[in-house]
Write a structure and sequence with these properties.
The chain is of the alpha/beta class. Helix content is 28%, strand content 27%. It has a 6-stranded mixed β-sheet, with helices on both faces. A 4-stranded antiparallel β-sheet has the order 2-1-4-5, with helices on one face. Strand 7, helix 6 and strand 8 form a beta-alpha-beta unit. Helix 3 packs parallel to helix 5 and helix 5 packs parallel to helix 6.
């Protein structure tokens, strides 16, 4: 199993205000799979993703990613893990406003000893012609494509996506999902996608539903519906 999570526990708050957000989650994802994580607001799905990404420190349990056990890591090693293993895509693109598209991508390219080819990646993502533009000059869909390129240029083994289409209209959302699907097939990148969009669950291999800090459903799709065929985004 590429990603193995066992009995993951997370609390917020102190003493009398302490609240348990994750209540012993155990699950796994195979290498190269696309996985959707769904659940109501406040269910713990983003906390779960952030724990896998080393952005939140669990209070118990284990997380093994590609042979690396991250729970209990010291901050320096955790930073190396995020740099070497992961790519992040967020709902709000977090591009550096004073850097061009190409420079936003190159910032992360320099972090990797084995980056993808920037020109090829930009061509794949349809942004080869806007390399000299700044984020403020781009549409939301273009900004998200740049954010995807920035995350992928490091050649991560795991791509974590938190509501990657949440700020986009249905047409642009479909184009972004087609891109994620293309990247998954072309590079074999394992993906975990937090989303409220029920349509997206049909285009992935595995679906995990979290409710009140626990997994209420975990299933696999026998076949994946191509993103281009999703009609209810």
């Amino acid at each position: 199993m590429f990603l193995e999570v066992e009995n993951l526990i997370k609390y917020y708050g102190e003493v009398e205000n302490r609240m348990q957000v994750l209540k012993g989650i155990s699950t796994g994802v195979e290498k190269g799979e696309m996985c959707v994580i769904q659940g109501p607001s406040g269910s713990g799905k983003s906390t779960f993703l952030n724990c896998i990404g080393g952005l939140e420190i669990p209070d118990g349990g284990s997380i093994n990613v590609d042979g690396t056990q991250i729970v209990g890591m010291k901050p320096g090693r955790l930073s190396d893990y995020r740099r070497d293993k992961l790519g992040f895509i967020f709902q709000f693109y977090n591009l550096v406003p004073d850097l061009t598209v190409r420079e936003n991508i190159e910032v992360c390219e320099f972090l990797s000893p084995n980056p993808l080819d920037a020109a090829e990646l930009m061509e794949t993502l349809g942004i080869a012609g806007i390399g000299d533009k700044f984020p403020a000059q781009l549409s939301g869909g273009q900004q998200q494509r740049v954010a995807i390129a920035r995350a992928l240029i490091k050649n991560p083994v795991l791509l974590l996506c938190d509501e990657p289409t949440g700020a986009l209209d249905s047409r642009t959302s479909r184009s972004i999902l087609i891109l994620l699907e293309t990247i998954n097939r072309k590079y074999g990148t394992t993906m975990m996608i937090v989303t409220h969009n029920n349509a997206i669950r049909r285009m992935v291999d595995r679906v995990i539903i979290i409710k009140d800090g626990e997994i209420s459903e975990s299933s696999r799709n026998a076949t994946r519906v191509p993103a281009a065929e999703l009609t209810d985004l």
